[in-house]
Design goal:
The protein is an alpha/beta fold. Helices cover 24% and strands 21% of the residues.
Length: 627
């Protein structure tokens, strides 16, 4: 094993292909070469001890398709560490020569957290082709928009013709649905050429229900000692967990090494159970850094309980991750612009104070009791920079967790949508857009998963039960109209139409201009490096003040309610630097965005906050007049 890059799988060597597999449940293992170089052939692997079997097979090479036969079984199984499953998770594995791809990103330095604008992408619906090549064709426009890093929804091989990717079963094999592994590499190479990083969403808390053959190699991959929302938890701390931990941490490094990815987003980390002296999440983060080498990498967590120890250094009992998603930002903002407080939104009021607090502190729930969950939720964020919280107004889950998968712009007024977008893109948190959000996509994003008929019925029933927590969806009138996750029409309906960039030019211009301001303005680009404060101006109105060097501050004034006049205005954050006054530098009510115009923010007699609007003010000398 000393000369191998990964502990298991098929790797090309000068003398052939080195096959290695962990199968402690099997008395013997044969590799069956079904097609390609060296086929047909069946050769016994040599037992190494501790459940490992290996051999170098002369004549096999790139393109060889193979299976492992355990203990003389009639039917072979795909490799647990397969690099490619050209016929899906039940078919043969294929030997891949990762070194054959010619990269052009030798000068690429990776991505650091500061200044990032993330873009969540589902490759299968992002373009009409639904492939890596189709997605790559749109990267130049994403770069022009101001996106700096793509966060790919999971791509590990899964069963069926379509799906979200969270039911992956072959963790090392990018799904055949989007192209071959080199097509994925070509996508990453193109992104880097355009200055865009690529982060991959990975699922290490469970495997999918169809095509998961790991248990046949050994039941030790899983444990029933923990309650997992999606099936058996992965065994990170029980008997024989060492090879399982090695399998997962090797996978984390593999994506960074062989695909030049710039980091990982860890799905549902609260379901990664581990009582080991070193948590597997810490080990994953370390492996990502090692694989990145001189390139900067990011490790981002989804964590519903909001456990900020994920961000603390290991020396302080943390896991050393870079950033975490903040559902609190989404939930508070969604309630604020829609007024709807069903299910998990019932813990939020959508008030100005909530929005100020979540921008300043990342999370609203830091140990208080959640009425919806009936328990305490969250942990303190003291000392954690705002940029380490990933904020969003839309993501795959939140758009789909509705009756029709509608985007936020369809659920609120145009003015509120523009104002909340300004908050997202100018706040010092790290913003994330969901594909199509930037042009107000008319297409929904629904839950879709192609499964066998029996499993499809179970998924359909489970999805309906999940949505039942929303009283408005639980009504017979709506319940009977829910899209069938297993229907190809549901998948096709979720496919973007990128021509809507032109059709919805006002929304696209809004996002383009805000991202340009975020990048080019010396105060917004610093993400609160000189400090940030906020104040409530009314039930639905607030001000954020980002402090700049030498008094070059910025005000972001947001009013999600009715027009508001402040006379007087006893809020210190509204006071301009001495000898200066505020000038409007940008407003969401510009006709370019579909707005209806604006009046001066401060006319020396009163402050006037337009309804459903946001504006940016900067200080100018008293002798300077508004242009």
């Amino acid at each position: 094993m000393a000369d191998r890059k990964l502990p298991v799988g098929a790797e090309l060597k000068a003398q052939g292909v080195s096959f290695r597999v962990w199968a402690p449940a099997a008395p013997s293992v044969d590799v069956i070469l079904e097609s390609g170089p060296g086929s047909p052939a069946a050769l016994a692997l040599d037992p190494e001890g501790d459940g490992y079997f290996s051999a170098v097979v002369a004549g096999a090479g790139a393109g060889t398709r193979y299976r492992f036969r355990l203990g003389g079984a009639e039917r072979g199984l795909p490799d647990p560490a397969s690099r490619f499953q050209p016929e899906g998770p039940h078919g043969p594995s294929e030997v891949v020569d990762a070194a054959a791809f010619e990269w052009s990103d030798g000068s690429w330095g990776g991505v650091a957290l500061a200044g990032q604008v993330l873009y969540e992408m589902h490759v299968g619906t992002f373009s009409r082709e639904g492939t890596w090549a189709g997605a790559a064709g749109e990267l130049a426009e994403l770069a022009r928009l101001g996106v700096t890093a793509i966060e790919l929804m999971p791509v590990a091989e899964f069963a069926g013709r379509f799906g979200w990717g969270y039911d992956g079963v072959d963790l090392f094999a990018p799904t055949r649905l989007y192209g071959r592994p080199d097509d994925f590499r070509r996508f990453v190479d193109r992104a880097h050429a355009l200055g865009i990083g690529v982060v991959l969403d990975v699922v290490y808390n469970h495997l999918g229900p169809d095509g998961n053959h790991l248990r046949t190699f050994t039941p030790a991959y899983f444990t029933d000692r923990y309650d997992n929302e999606w099936g058996d938890a992965i065994n990170f701390d029980g008997p024989d967990s060492g090879p399982v931990r090695e399998f997962v941490t090797a996978n984390a490094g593999y994506w960074i090494d062989e695909f030049h990815l710039d980091g990982l987003r860890l799905d549902a980390t609260q379901q990664m159970f581990d009582t080991s002296p070193e948590h597997v999440i810490t080990a994953i983060a370390r492996r990502v850094r090692e694989a990145g080498g001189r390139r900067s990498t990011l490790v981002i967590a989804e964590n519903e309980p909001q456990q900020t120890r994920l961000l603390r250094p290991p020396a302080q009992g943390g896991h050393g991750l870079d950033a975490m998603w903040t559902d609190d930002f989404h939930h508070a903002a969604r309630v604020a612009v829609t007024g709807r407080r069903e299910a998990y939104y019932s813990d939020y009021r959508g008030t100005a104070q909530e929005l100020v607090s979540v921008v300043k502190r990342g999370y609203l729930y830091q140990g208080q009791r959640s009425a919806w969950q009936g328990k305490r939720r969250g942990s303190p964020t003291v000392g954690i920079e705002p940029a380490r919280f990933v904020a969003y107004l839309q993501n795959h889950d939140q758009v789909a967790n509705s009756a029709r998968g509608e985007r936020l712009h369809a659920l609120t007024s145009p003015g509120r949508f523009r104002a909340s977008t300004a908050l997202l893109l100018l706040a010092p948190l790290t913003p994330m857009l969901f594909q199509g959000q930037e042009f107000g996509a008319s297409t929904p994003f629904l839950f879709f998963a192609d499964h066998t008929p029996e499993l499809a019925r179970s998924v359909r029933r489970g999805r309906a039960e999940f949505l039942h927590q929303f009283p408005s969806i639980a009504t017979p009138e709506i319940h009977g109209r829910l899209a069938d996750p297993s229907s190809p029409e549901t998948f096709e309906a979720s496919r973007l139409d990128v021509s809507e960039r032109e059709a919805h030019a006002e929304i696209y211009a809004l996002h383009t201009d805000l991202l340009r301001m975020r990048r080019d303005d010396p105060v917004f680009s610093r993400q609160g490096a000189h400090g940030i404060d906020g104040g409530v101006l009314g039930a639905d109105a607030f001000v954020l003040r980002l402090f700049g060097a030498d008094g070059d501050d910025r005000l972001l004034v947001v009013n999600l309610g009715d027009e508001l006049t402040l006379s007087p205005a006893p809020e210190p954050l509204l006071a301009p630097p001495e000898g200066r006054r505020w000038e409007i530098a940008w407003t969401s009510e510009h006709p370019r965005y579909g707005g209806s115009g604006w009046a001066p923010l401060d006319d020396q007699e009163q402050w006037r906050l337009a309804a459903h609007a946001a504006c940016v003010a900067r200080p100018v000398d008293e002798t300077t007049h508004d242009g």
